[in-house]
Amino acid sequence: MDNIIYILFVSISVPILLMTILVEKRARLPLAFMLVGIVSSVFVSEVNGLLRTALDMDIYRITVVVTPMTEELVKALPILYYAVVISDKREKLFTASMATGIGFAVLENAFYLINYSESFSVTTAIIRAFGAGLMHGMCTLLVGVGISFVKKRKKLFAVGTFGLLSTAIVYHGIYNILIQSPYHMVGACLPVATYIPFFVWRLWVKYKQTKASQNKS
Amino acid sequence: MENTELLYTWIAGLIAFAANLISFIYGLVHFFKKGKPLCMQSLTLAMGSHALGSVYHVCQALTGELTVEGFTPAYLGRIGFFLFIIAGSYGQLDRIVDDRSPAMRRARILALAAPLCAILLYLPNLRAGSALSTEITYALVWIPALFAVYFNLKHALIPDLDFGFIKAIRPYNIMTLCLGLSELLCLTAWEYMEVHFLFVSTVLFGALSIATMIAAKKGVDKWTI
After folding, report:
1. Which of A1, A207, B31, B111 could form a disulfide with B40 if both were Cys (CB 3.0 to 4.6 A apart)?
2. What is the structure's pLDDT at B205?
3. What is the pLDDT of residue B1?
4. CA distance A208 to A214
């Protein structure tokens, strides 16, 4: 079962790809970026495997130092490319980045489920879904939303991009530290705790937009 | 690592985090408005970046898995801290305050004392006998720090010929210079795992980060451009 990640990749991505071709143009963006996330996950698994052999580190150090960097960089690259070359509209970047993170998490969770199926229960599945699943989404979302701000401030663009990537990496690292510690429940709640402010902010922005359009009409 | 060391590093990290968080929120409230200078927004982001690095160390110390040797994501927060300061000092201020005229030459030359001082602070780290990976990691933090302290001292020394705002933001530049150097001191203390020195330098860093934000606010209020 060495190539299980590829089996999962084919079985999950092909149906999504076929659906992406058929659906309306508006729905294509999140689906396409979910596929990007899934591809990133496969790519990162190979990179992490190579680094683990090359760096000769124990699994704890790999998960708190190396994987946050490789995973966040690989997830962020398509978003940065999209923001710089195609569109820096906040709405689109919001959707694209969250979809990339979630796509990444879908494959990663499926991989964990198969590899550690004997130790998995509904509770661990819920923790994994709200923890690692949401964490990947939040990290990429942070880069996507942040890039829409720094792109408009030319002088801050390079440093700002670095800052966003470091924020995502440190956030991921903190999650990995906590989830493997006696404070694992704090770690599991961390992504939800950051998701709620984002959710409230989105509601607030939509409320303001609706109010503005009502005032206009 | 011993429990006392872990406790001290945990408290030190917590102090740095709390001070950075206060500074970051202060900056968000005062500098993220229309018409406020970009360099102060950059300074605010520098505080946020350092806060993230500190919280990573706090979590590591809390779980008892503190890694002193080699690279950790916490250093990204520190590198980002200096890069954001450079973005503000070089990216925005330098173009305005230095017109490349001979009158500024003295300040430009004297300002080299700051990176020299930073290099002197790096030397004890080479004698600490740490792993090469740690030395490289420290060098990655020190390189942007050299530029950051250079521009801070330069802007503190530069004569105020036309505008009047150079004088207004002089305390901010002096404070940022001290802040940068105190951060380098913290790193040296960290490398030697000298807990009392680490504790004192972190308290100094925390106090300076809040003082820098206050000096920046006062400077911006006087800024007439």
Report:
1. B31
2. 94
3. 58
4. 10
Sign of CA dihedral B213, B217, B222, B223: positive
Rounded Cα distance between A2 and B54, Å, is: 39
A169: which chain B residues are within 8 Å (Cβ-Cβ)? Answer: 73, 76
Cα A2 to Cα A5, A46, A74, A111, B105: the distances in Å are 8, 12, 22, 11, 65
Nearest C-alpha of chain B: how many angstroms from A41?
A: 20
Asked whether the beta carbons of B213 and B25 are under 8 A apart, the reply is: no
Q: Mark yes or no for CB contact B60/A177 under 8 Å.
A: yes
CB B93, CB B172: distance < 8 Å: no
CATH architecture group of domain B3-222: Up-down Bundle (1.20)
Residue B129, phi-psi category: left (phi > 0), alpha (psi -120 to 50), beta (remainder) = left
Report the C-alpha gap between B119 and B108 in whole angstroms: 18
The Cβ of residue B120 has, within 10 Å, a number of other Cβ atoms equal to: 10
Query: Is A70 within 8 Å of A44 (Cβ atoms)?
Result: yes
Is the pLDDT at B2 greater than 70? The verdict is no
Would you state the structure tokens that stand for residue A181, as one six-digit string? 């510690």
DSSP state letters, B107-158? HHHHTTHHHHHHHHHHHHHHHTT--HHHHHHHHHHHHHHHHHHHHHHHHHHS
The answer to whether A135 touches A191, Cβ cutoff 8 Å, is: yes
The ipTM, to two decimals, is 0.84
The predicted model scores a pTM of 0.89
The answer for residues whose C-beta is within 8 angstroms of residue B43's C-beta and 6 or more apart is B27, B31, B84, B85, B88, B176, B212, B213, B216
Q: Which helix (H) or strand (E) holds B102?
A: none
- What tokens were used for B50? 């350092």
The residue length of chain B stands at 225
Q: HEC profile for chain A?
A: CCCHHHHHHHHHHHHHHHHHHHCCHHHHHHHHHHHHHHHHHHHHHHHHHHHHHHHCCCHHHHHHHHHHHHHHHHHHHHHHHHHHHHCCCHHHHHHHHHHHHHHHHHHHHHHHHHHCHHHCCHHHHHHHHHHHHHHHHHHHHHHHHHHHHHCCCHHHHHHHHHHHHHHHHHHHHHHHHHHCCCCHHHHHHHHHHHHHHHHHHHHHHHHHHHHHHHHHC
Using 70 as the pLDDT threshold, list the residues of chain A that sit under it.
Answer: 1-2
B200: CB partners within 8 A, 6+ apart:
none
